[in-house]
Amino acid sequence: MKYAFIYRNKRVWPIRVQCRVLRVSVAGYHEHFVRRRDMVQRRHLSAEALLVHIRAVFEENRGAYGWPRIWRELRAQGIRVGKLRVQRLMQGNGIRARGKRRFRITTTDSRHSLPTAPNLLDRNFTATAPNQVWVGDVTYIATDEGWLFLAVVMDLFSRRIVGWSLREQITSEIVIDALRMAWFLRCPDREAGLIFTATEAASMPATSSPSC
């Protein structure tokens, strides 16, 4: 390596002359050894000093990082340290990543005494024309500000979403809004006997829906 050759022979030829002959910059030569000195210093950090760096990375990431990710972050910062050393220091000082809290959301509740419509569809998911069968369901979406609930209505013939509603809470209105959007968007024939089935196998004929 050119920098190592220059360093070994700096008492024989001036550094500037060697750099000119070997076509490297003097600034680059000095910068190289400054970086090496810093790395050597970081490599031999005491346990107390290393623990300060570990705590800093841990706090910056709100306690979500365990020892493998903290070790990778330290390496990215130029701190040469072994995995086991980071692991031992964290365990010995009670530094543990926060466990992910289990969060369960229920969009279907079968334990109720509300009336349910007869299952007119009976798992026959084949439609021969638009606006014969609509199906609906409710799901949830994680956002930075919390959970949102999404209700959709799909036409089984085209597999297109024909109505939807998005709310912060799961109530009956979210399904009604999605169905209302689909109804006014499609304006199906009231006499055609449209079937709408959703979670809990709730079905309803088109005659019970509003007019366009």
Protein described:
The chain has 212 residues and is α+β, with helices and mostly antiparallel strands. It folds into two domains: 2-92, no CATH class; 103-212, Nucleotidyltransferase, domain 5. Helices cover 39% and strands 17% of the residues. The chain has seven helices and five strands, in the order ααααααβββαββ. It has helices spanning 2-8, 15-22, 26-43, 47-60, 67-76, 83-92, 172-186; strands at 133-143, 146-155, 160-167, 195-198, 202-205. It has a five-stranded mixed beta sheet with strand order 3-2-1-4-5. β2 and β3 form a beta hairpin. α4 crosses α5 (67-76) and α5 packs across α6. The protein is elongated, with a radius of gyration of 34 Å. Residues 200-209 have low confidence and may be disordered.
Name its key features:
212 residues, alpha+beta, Nucleotidyltransferase, domain 5, 2 domains, five-stranded mixed β-sheet, 7 helices, 5 strands
Quick structural overview:
By secondary structure, the protein is α+β, with helices and mostly antiparallel strands.
Describe the SSE topology.
Blueprint: H1 2-8, H2 15-22, H3 26-43, H4 47-60, H5 67-76, H6 83-92, E1 133-143, E2 146-155, E3 160-167, H7 172-186, E4 195-198, E5 202-205
Parallel strand pairs: 1-4
Antiparallel strand pairs: 1-2, 2-3, 4-5
Helix pairs in contact: 4-5, 5-6
